[in-house]
Amino acid sequence: xxxxxxxxxxxxIKELKEAKKNMIRVRVPCGGRDKRQVLLVLIEExxxxxxxxCYHAGAPLExxxxxxxxxxxxxxxxxxxxxxxxxxxxxxxxxxxxxxxxIKSLGKRHRTHTVRVDDQGGVFSPSFPY
Length: 130
Prior knowledge:
Layout: E1 11-12, H1 13-18, E2 23-29, E3 35-43, E4 46-51, E5 65-69, E6 72-76, E7 83-85, E8 90-96, E9 101-108, E10 112-113, E11 116-117, E12 122-124
Antiparallel strand pairs: 1-12, 2-3, 3-4, 4-10, 5-6, 6-7, 7-8, 8-9, 11-12
């Protein structure tokens, strides 16, 4: 794999900060000639990465909104409103009760990717073969 000095970052913190909603969808190699679409999300100076298309119907998640459900930060699918936790990949749903709201996981469904940021703000991941 080598170190980050020999690899090209898939994005930079600067690009994420300048992007609409602090989200960028990138295409990364995933074996052979195939490319995987990955959504990079910057929340409170931390980068999270999940597959870029909704697992339910393939909608591009970068056109969705970031929502906070309880303690979870989620990307809301623009097509059917599925909320995907950017840290865990879980599909979560707010359950309204008479006195409070409970956040319920509907199961881990979305692929997440490990990312790291180097000293120059480059975003790298061992999940992405370069």
